[in-house]
From TrEMBL:
Keyword terms: Signal
Signal sequence extent: 1-25
InterPro entries: BUG, Bug_dom1, TAT_signal
Keyword check for Nucleus: no
Recorded family membership: Belongs to the UPF0065 (bug) family.
Record protein name field: Tripartite tricarboxylate transporter substrate binding protein
């Protein structure tokens, strides 16, 4: 064999190995190292608990360790931004509720301190929806939204609690105020838990919450359910009418959660996680566990989450200006 021909063969083989390297590495995903799921909220809340359930299930299916990393602060934007800046290799994922979409605009963050909501991530899957529920303390003496509005117009001093300024519940409360022509005062809390505690105690008249957080109090007649904020009734509280049914056809806001990856994460990785998560969401155990948090499984392709995120961004940007909503 001539020296030239030998060099040509070796050079071709080396090029083939170089080309095959990433492909082989990709094919072995996620064998290289544990997967980290970032949660931009403290441990102990609904988002953290749901993330840990999904992490356990994903670990079992992928046969790889999945670690939950809490990075709370600044309305979730610290953890979200961290994932947006992480390597797009499939080993850092974000599990987040829908304030992911609105937090940067509500908080008025500069681009340097924020993240690109629409183009900075790879959507993986919309995991669940959490219908929002309006509840009242029994002392308010109302059993429907029309009765609540009539009480407000009649001069009764009323308030509504939310888990924070700029939350989906805040948007719903102010949107209903405008649609009904009333001014029910907003009382923001740091999380759903404290807001529920105070409405059960009667310190605030009403609260927009997730169903799982108040189901026990409704069953004990310590809170009165008034309305669902979604367009349709919830399977988890089928007896509660929507705002749409009670005359407010345009007032629709829901909550959701899902998985994102850094922009540029390989499509094969996104599809692998999406396929496994869709299977996880069909497990009876998972469906039952989600119900305890007032959540219903969603699923679908990555495009479902992308469209949900984009539609909410457009809607909430418009409402934020119209309703003068901010985190301040």
């Amino acid at each position: 064999m001539s020296l030239h021909r030998r060099h040509l063969i070796l050079g071709t083989a080396a090029a083939a190995l170089t080309f095959a390297g990433p492909v082989l590495a990709q094919a072995s995903y996620p064998a290289a190292k544990p997967i980290t799921i970032v949660v931009s909220y403290p441990p102990g809340g609904d988002t953290d608990a749901i993330a840990r359930m999904f992490g356990d299930k994903l670990s079992q299916r992928l046969k790889q360790t999945v670690v939950i990393e809490n990075r709370p602060g600044a309305g979730g934007t610290i953890g979200n931004g961290h994932v947006g800046r992480s390597a797009p290799d499939g080993y850092t994922l974000l599990f987040t509720p829908n304030p992911f979409t609105t937090a940067p605009m509500v908080m008025g963050l500069t681009p340097a301190n924020s993240y690109d909501v629409l183009n900075g991530f790879e959507p993986i899957i919309k995991t669940a929806t959490q219908p929002l529920l309006l509840v009242a303390h029994p002392s308010v003496g109302v059993k429907s939204v029309p009765e609540l509005v009539a009480a407000a117009k009649g001069g009764k001093t009323l308030s509504y609690a939310s888990p924070g300024a700029g939350s989906p519940m805040h948007f719903l409360g102010e949107w209903l105020n405008r649609a009904a022509g009333v001014k029910i005062s907003h009382v923001p809390y740091r999380g759903v838990g404290p807001s529920v505690t105070d409405v059960v105690a009667g310190h605030v008249s009403t609260a927009w919450v997730t169903i799982g957080a108040v189901s026990q109090y409704i069953n004990q007649n310590r809170l009165v359910p008034l309305a669902i904020g979604d367009a349709n009734r919830s399977k988890l509280a089928p007896q509660v009418p929507t705002l749409v049914e009670q005359g407010y056809k345009d007032v629709v806001v829901g909550a959701w959660n899902g998985f994102f990856a850094p922009k540029g994460t390989p499509r094969e990785v996104v599809n692998l996680i999406n396929t496994n998560m869709n299977a996880i969401l069909k497990e009876p155990e998972v469906i039952a566990k989600l119900a305890t948090y007032g959540a219903e499984p969603a699923g679908g392709t990555p495009d479902v989450l992308a469209k949900t995120n984009a539609a909410e961004y457009a809607q909430m940007a418009k409402l934020m200006k119209e309703l003068n909503i901010s985190a301040n």
